[in-house]
Amino acid sequence: MNNLKLEALLNDFLSPQLMKDYCPNGLQVEGKTEVNKVITGVTACQALIDRAIAEHADAILVHHGFFWKGEAAEIRGMKYRRIKALIENGINLYAYHLPLDVHSQVGNNVQLAQRLGLDISGGLEINNPRSIAIYGELDTPLTGEEFAARIAMALQREPLHIGDNAPALIKKVGWCTGGGQDYIELAVEQGCDAFISGEVSERTTHIARELGIHYFAAGHHATERYGVKALGEWLAKEHGCDVEFIDINNPV
Q1: Where would one find the signal peptide in this protein (predicted)?
Q2: Are 64 and 162 within one domain?
Q3: Is 101 within any annotated ligand binding site?
Q4: Residue range 107-128: average pLDDT?
């Protein structure tokens, strides 16, 4: 497939033009014109790039790419080595950040819900059809300890659980994968019993305790592992692309 055609196909599916983001979405580093082999992964780190080179890939598709708002513009050091490796090997780099978080089919939030047995009700941001944070319900109410165990089993990672002053049972849950911890107060406003994000901040503990909500920090990487994997599977199934997901271990 032509590399620009692949970008157009991904843009059509994910609609990045509808999101105000912190980085460019789409083709970030141009490589070979013809794309046969695609490697997917969470972050365009050197380890993933090295694996793509070893697999003779023509493209890498990630959730966390390059050129973030506020970062230094100079291409030197770590950034230089990553981009140099891509260019020297003709590897296209495609990245989709918020559009992949919120997508209704392959999005990180939807994929997390499927693994935790959550039925999605809507967005925590009222009147925003592309709310970054969403909420839903468990079929059967669980204690905080039971829900923590379910998260650990689904993500293969023990979550941080703060449950002081929280309800005895969890039914309504809000969540936002990755660095979505600051949506916790919105979850409280929407009547959630629990809130899940990937990362946690020092203030999050006090907010959870004082507002009486269960909070689970389940890992940025762990909560966002499945969106890009599902996107790659969609490419393979719907468009016949040769796609391989590579999970670079990250405990955070």
Answers
A1: none
A2: no
A3: yes
A4: 96
CATH number at residue 173: 3.40.1390.30
Same domain, 66 and 86: yes
Residue 247 lies in a domain: no
- Asked whether the beta carbons of 49 and 13 are under 8 A apart, the reply is no
Q: Are residues 92 and 107 in the same domain?
A: no
- How many other C-beta atoms can be found within 10 angstroms of the C-beta atom of residue 144? 21
63 in a known ligand binding site = yes
The average pLDDT across 91-111 equals: 98
The pLDDT of residue 130? 93
Overall pTM > 0.85? yes
Region 79-100: what's the mean pLDDT? 98
d(CA 222, CA 250): 8
Residue 221 counted as an annotated binding residue: no
